Amino acid sequence: MRVLVTSSRNTFALDLIRKLGSTGHTVFASDTYAGAIGNHSKYLAGHFVTSSPRFNTDEFIGDLVNIVEEHRIDVIIPTFEEAFYLAARGHELPDGTSVFTGGFEQLARLHDKASFKRLAIEAGVPVPETIVANSPEELQAAIDQYPRYFARAAFSRGGVGLLTNTGPLAGKMSVDEAVPTPDQPWLVQPFVDGPMICTYSIVVDGRVTAHCTYRAPEQWAHSTGISFLAIDSTETLDYTQKLVDALDSSYTGQLSFDFVDNDGGLFAIECNPRPTSGVILLEAEEVSQAFAGTNPEPFVVAPGVERQVKLAVLADAFAEPIKHLPKSLHDLLHVRDVGAGWHDELAMLWSPATIVHGAQLSHGERTELLAALGADIVWNGEPIDGMLPEDRAALEAVHEQRV
C-alpha cells in the first residue's frame, strides 16, 4: 500500500509513519512547513510541504492532487483536523485514492462537542449534565448554576481554552475571555472529579479493529500528555463500538475519546475523530493489519504497556522541578521512549522547528503555544470553501443536533 500521512508534525504521526513504513508499506509524509518531525523519518519514501488546509484550502487540495498523481498514492491518512477539509473535498482526488476518515457529516457530529453529547446519549454512553451557551450572558447564567463548573468551546482541542473554578486550571482563564455565539457555542458542565481516561481506535466499515485505553501520568501544562500508560479497555471498547454503531455502521477512520473516571464510573467528555497518542502503545504489525481490517478480532493493548516522550518529560521536569523532577527522573530511567528501537533519531531533532512554526503562526500575539502549534490545520465548525451542497446542509443539521 502506498500511503500519504498528512500533518506529520505530531509525535503520533511520526509513530504511524514508522509503523507503516516498517511493515512493508511505501509511506510519504506532508505538512505545511518543512521542519515537521515526521517529514524527516528514515521510513519515508518522500516528503512534501503543502499549503494550509485552513487558510488556503483550494491550494491544499491542489497540492495533494499533485502528490497523489505523481506518487500513485492509494490512501491518505490524516492525523489532525485536515481530515475535515479532505472529507469535504475528497471527491476532487484522483479515482482510486481513498482518505482514511469518515464522511464530513460524521466527523462534524463527533467534533462538535455539543452534538457529540447527543450522539453519546443515543448510544447509551454516560455523559455529564451539559448546558450549551450561545452568548456571554448564557455562559454566565450556566456557570452560576454549578458551585464547581467546567466549560470549554464546542470547537476546541488539546486541553487549551478551559474555563473552570476547580482543579489545577482554576482561574487560568477568565469568563470575559470566553465569547460564545450561536456558531461558536460553549459547553458548561458540573466539574466531574476523577482522572482523565483516553482512548484511541482504528475503525474499518463500522468495526473497531484496534483499541487502546490509557492515562497520561505526565502532562505538559496540565493539558497534552507526554507519557502514556495503558489500562484495561473492557468498558471503553464497548462504549466505542456503541458510539460507532450509533453514528453509522459504515464508518471508517480513526477515533479518540476522552472520559473522566468518576470513582469507577466513566463519563464521555469529547471525541477527536483522528489519531492521538494512544497509537504509540500499539505494535507495528497490529497497526498495519488494523488499517487493512484483516484481523477478525480487535487488537487491544494490554494494561501496563507504557511509553513516554523523553524530551518533553525532561523539559517538563525542569519547568517545575520541585513538583515533577523526582517522578520524571524515575520515568526517564524506567519508561521506554516512543523512539526506542526505531533508530530514527534525526526526526525528533527537528522538534524545535515545530515550536518556531507555532511562534510564527501566533504573529506575536499572546496565544497559548499549544493552540498556535495547530492553528493552520484546525477546523472550527465553519463552512469549508468548495464543499458540496449536501455537506453544507449536513453541517447545518449537526448544529441543530446540539444538546
From TrEMBL:
Official protein name in the record: Carbamoyl-phosphate synthase large subunit
Superkingdom of source: Bacteria
Residues in ATP-grasp domain copies: 117-300
Keywords recorded for this protein, A-Z: ATP-binding, Nucleotide-binding
PROSITE patterns: ATP_GRASP
Lineage: Bacteria, Bacillati, Actinomycetota, Actinomycetes, Micrococcales
GO MF terms, alphabetically ordered: ATP binding; metal ion binding
Keyword Transcription regulation appears in the UniProt entry: no
The species this protein was found in: Pseudoclavibacter terrae
